[in-house]
Amino acid sequence: MNRVTTTILTALAPVSWGSTYFVASELLPPDRPLFTGAMRALPAGLLLVALSRVLPKGAWWWKSAVLGTLNIGAFFPLLFLSAYRLPGGVAAVLGSAGPLFVVGLAALLLGERARLRTILAAVVAAFGVSMVVLTAEAKLDLVGVIAGVVSSASMGAGTVMTKRWGRPEGVGPLAVTGWQLTAGGLVIIPIAALVEGAPPALDGKAFLGYGYMMLINTGAAYFLWFRGIGQLTATSVTLLGPLSPLTAAVIGWAALGQALSPVQLVGMALAFGATVFGQLPGRPARAAKAEVPPAQETPFSSPEETDRNVSMDLGKAKV
Q1: Which of 26, 45, 286, 313 qualifies as a cystine partner to 181, CB 3.0-4.6 A?
Q2: CA-wise closest residue to 227 among 165, 153, 177
Q3: Which residues does 97 contact at the CB level (< 8 Å), separation at least 6?
Q4: Among the listed ranges 44-48, 71-75, 246-250, 281-285, which one has the minimum average pLDDT value?
Q5: CA angle 172, 42, 144 (to 5 degrees)
Q6: How far apart, in whole angstroms, are the C-alpha atoms of residue 276 and residue 2?
Q7: Is 281:124 a contact under the CB 8 Å cutoff?
């Protein structure tokens, strides 16, 4: 599968997350964000683990717990706290700053060079999102701002560590996604019980909404997201994040009759353009390539093939 196809499939994750507000407001019980987070994560995680029929082994028990906490268990509650304490637009802007955390952490932990074009794309995307979601009445709350910043940092660290640790040999992304969602859901459940109390009564609409959130919005979306992290750079994946608030704005306009002003349309164009720009491959290092004479260039070989060739050469040398 080529890079463009992988990028498009990975982008479906934040596009799906952009539907969360619509589904929550139209189908789910009000004022139960933590219960919703648990219902998204834990059933989806258990289902993916059952489908993969693979459990963690050794160090992957604690690695899955760490990744599940960063990507889901801590991220969801902090995000919801930020959303409650701040206007939705401010919370969305704080979330769109996540790529900047990933750029810094990827340079520190993964050796991915922080290119100027990547930083520029992240800043322009965040600015474009702010044009779409911020209003003149937006007010800041210190606790909400801290929660929003930490939630972005948590998801950013989870993205980078998911890339750094990869997957156990022979284990596919379906199983690893299931491990993380299960661990994250188990973290959220006691928090939801403490803060929100007993689960609410559910009607047919709620079951439909939670079914969508579990299967599409979380199970399939996080599978595509973690799969993309494994095949693309961490910075490329995280720069797809602004598609989430943009999708939410489009759904609000199409399904809820929310108007889009010219300023918002310009902001959407800026954010989308920056997202696409961030996916473009960088220029090849011509100078570095020129230093290698044509006679020394060799076709690509796998590590196994290289080892085999070296063994054959040694054998010839002994004869």
Answers
A1: 45
A2: 177
A3: 122, 126, 149, 152
A4: 281-285
A5: 110
A6: 16
A7: no
And the tokens for 151?
A: 């939630």
Token couple for 93: 């802007």
Sign (positive or negative) of CA dihedral 7, 125, 110, 75 = negative
Average pLDDT, the chain: 84
Read out DSSP for the chain? Answer: --HHHHHHHHHHHHHHHTTHHHHHHHHSPTT-HHHHHHHHHHHHHHHHHHHHT----TTHHHHHHHHHIIIIITHHHHHHHHHHHS-HHHHHHHHHTHHHHHHHHIIIII-----HHHHHHHHHHHHHHHHHH--TT----HHHHHHHHHHHHHHHHHHHHHHHH---TT--HHHHHHHHHHHHHHHHHHHHHHHH-SPPP--HHHHHHHHHIIIIIIIIHHHHHHHHHHHS-HHHHHTTTTHHHHHHHHHHHHHS-----HHHHHHHHHHHHHHHHHHSPPPP-HHHHHTS-GGG------HHHHHHHHHHHHHHHH-
- Does residue 302 have a pLDDT over 60? no
Most confident range (mean pLDDT) of 39-43, 138-142, 258-262 is 39-43
191: its two tokens: 């928090």
Q: Rounded to 5 degrees, what angle do the CA atoms 289, 290, 291 make? A: 90
pLDDT tens-digit readout, 189-202: 999 999 999 999 99
Q: What's the pTM?
A: 0.82
- What's the number of CA atoms in the CB half-sphere (13 Å) around residue 288? 3
3-state secondary structure 183-203: HHHHHHHHHHHHHHCCCCCCC
pLDDT tens profile 85-101:
776 566 677 777 788 88
Q: Rounded to whole angstroms, how far apart are CA atoms 195 and 198? A: 9
